[in-house]
User: What shape does this take?
Amino acid sequence: MPHVPEPEEDHLDAIAPPQPVFHVEQALLGALLLHPHRLGDVTGIAADSFSTAAHAALFTAISTLPPPDPAEHAKNTKWLDQVLAAGREQARGLTASYLHTLIQVCPWPRHAPAYARMVEAEHARRRLQTAAERLIHSVDDATHPHPVEIVLAEAEALTAVVDDIASRFPPRAGVLPRTAAPPPAITTDHTEAVEEEQLLLATATAHPASVESVRWLLPDDLTRPLHAGLWQCLTALARRREPVDPVTVLWEALQRGLLDNASEPDEVLRLLAEPAGSVEHWGERALQRSLLATADHAGRRISAYAGDPANTPFQLVVGARRSLADISAVRTRWQHATGTVPPPGPRPAPATRAGPPTTTAAHAARAARAIR
Assistant: This one.
């Protein structure tokens, strides 16, 4: 009659490893079970560095129990029984046979530091992916009245994770991630964006003097290529102090080739002839959408990098920092737009460099040496 497992029975040694790091964790735990004194050689990891609750429970037990006497440990399983009992407090499915399996599958116990480094690297990848997903979720969360604050807070948290990973893993050659970046995702109401950008362009055409007050707004912040091109026309005319009205903007657009494959002239004229509100308000709305879209795309790129196990930790750091730099650039413009630019921090004292003495006594000493 075939054996029917109990509901709480967990045959850990029969579970197919979900990913390569599972084997590494087994080798590390096996090394520590066989030679507990090697725990002192293992750094950079904690219980949450492991991919399964059972492995985390075992590492906690190994780390907290007093190490056994090496001679006694070689003769009996008393300490292993203590580890099993402590581990079962957090993972009831642990069995004595699984502990013996861990010992058997460990190739070389003296390689425990290398195994720990691999576990640390995989944990860094999971941490980065979790932080990137939190950033993406904050962009998609439409319930918060101040979405930019939440998104920037998550971007700061993601930056802290990247900095921590960078401090743990030194740079190596070939650091660029090899993972293809995903295409940008639309995270805002496109219809609302188009309408507000049309109001921005019409209001700026009616009040060209106000264009100077929104220098923080760039053409790339607008969602439609035609709108971005018309904003370039407006800013160029205002910068040259030339007359600005729907006709002059239309002519500038024609000179720039914007009407070749875009809207009809009548449509552009109608778009520019219905101002409302203020340029500052519509510009800030466009910049907010740009910031959220940039954060979303950066989060998706970092998540894609972290989801590729072929990338090393430092490759992840380089790719993540490049993506976070895009957020930082838009955030700086947002701070200027909203008047929330943080005060500059204290400047570090200039480094002193050794050089020739410049005092009068020094000059006199050099002159005296010269006439000798």
Remarks:
- Confidence is low (pLDDT under 50) at residues 1-9, 347-372.
- The two ends are 110 Å apart (CA to CA).
